[in-house]
Specification:
Layout lengths: L4 E6 L4 H8 L5 E6 L6 H10 L5 H9 L5 H8 L14 H13 L2 H11 L5 E4 L5 E7 L4 E3 L1 H4 L6 E8 L10 H8 L3 E4 L4 H9 L2 H9 L3 E5 L3 E3 L8 H12 L6 E5 L16 E4 L4 H6 L3 E5 L2 E4 L2 E4 L1 H16 L1
Parallel strand pairs: 1-2, 1-7, 2-3, 7-8, 8-10, 10-12
Antiparallel strand pairs: 4-5, 4-6, 9-11, 13-14
């Protein structure tokens, strides 16, 4: 029997939680990862070595590998702030940069490291080039750079990407286009709407593939609103923004968490970008023509509210099985 082909699109710390759960299933799994990060270690490396930023790819590589936890901890080790030029760099970022420079391509480097670490499935950067994210706010102000967008006050009207080196239109990895067109299901998220998911979606060839694919499209809605991005957003607002950027209503199912985050639970010092829990607007979701799957997807960890990867994976596998039947 052919394995179900599932593509997960996103970046940041959201999708690794889901990928870690899905890699254990009997599926053909592919991760598509944003390359628009310009902050922290990734930003410094992309400027120094002229490669796509490695941070989000590192997290996905670890999530999809069967490596022992000790190895994962080594790759995630971040040099101390007193360590001069190495300060703040995770070892895994430096490894990806070194292999990318040696092999001349970050896509080739991730394939090589994927074999080395025995990953389950495929990992593709959305583009082989570093991209710059631009946000146009409702007052007409434009801010360039993912790390700067969340710091600007105001509501975002839309986002778009440019090639960091040339300033031209971004070019998608052909592998990404092919896997979306060939997929049985495409899952977007979980992750930051404007800085993790949309930086993949607005690449023209990926946008076109999402409009043309016969795959079911699933969106995993965020649990918390995010400062500078989705303040006061409902779950319907998240879907609406995705559809506006796609140019068409293509999302078939949306997964929403209905478990309440305990009052005063969030550690606002450790998770200062997260504000309040996303409110539900089931009437608005109906207007967006999506089927809603609501359940307890909440996982509380050290003062933060996250998705329970196993719970989300169970729903996705259930959808996949019903689709196959």
């Amino acid at each position: 029997m052919n394995k179900s082909k599932i593509v997960v699109i996103g970046g940041g710390t959201g999708i690794p939680v889901l990928l870690d759960a899905l890699r254990k299933e009997n599926i053909d799994l592919t991760a598509v990862v944003t390359v628009a990060d310009d902050g922290g270690s990734s930003g410094k490396i992309r400027n120094a070595v002229n490669i796509a930023p490695p941070g989000d790819l590192r997290n996905v590589l670890i999530a999809m590998s069967d490596m022992p936890q000790f190895y994962a901890d080594i790759l995630q080790y971040r040099f101390d702030e007193t360590d001069g030029p190495l300060a703040g760099h995770p070892l895994g970022n430096l490894l990806i940069a070194a292999v990318s420079e040696k092999q001349g391509s970050i896509s080739t480097a991730i394939r090589t490291l994927g074999r080395f670490f025995h990953i389950s499935g495929n990992i593709y950067p959305s583009s082989d080039q570093a991209l710059t994210l631009h946000a146009v706010f409702e007052d007409g102000t434009e801010v360039a750079g993912e790390s700067s967008i969340g710091k600007h006050e105001g509501l975002i009207s839309h986002v778009y990407l440019t090639d960091t080196d040339t300033g031209g239109a971004p070019i998608a990895s052909q592998n990404v286009v092919n896997c979306i067109m060939d997929a049985d299901m495409v899952v977007m998220g979980p992750g930051s709407l404007y800085t993790s998911i949309l930086p993949n979606v607005v690449i023209p060839d990926i946008n076109k593939a999402l409009l043309e694919t016969k795959a079911k499209v699933v969106y995993v809605c965020n649990i918390m609103t995010q400062r500078g991005e989705t303040e006061n957003f409902t779950d319907a607002d998240h879907v609406r923004v995705l559809h506006e950027h796609l140019g068409k209503k293509v999302i078939d199912h949306v997964l929403v968490n209905i478990e309440q985050v305990p009052q005063d639970y969030m550690d606002n010092n450790a998770f200062d970008e997260y504000l309040v829990q996303v409110k539900h607007d089931f009437a608005g979701l109906k207007e967006q023509e999506v089927k809603v799957i609501s359940n307890n997807f909440l996982r509380l960890v050290k003062g933060g509210a996250f998705h329970d990867g196993e719970a989300v994976a169970r729903e996705i596998m259930g959808l996949s099985k019903r689709q196959a039947d």
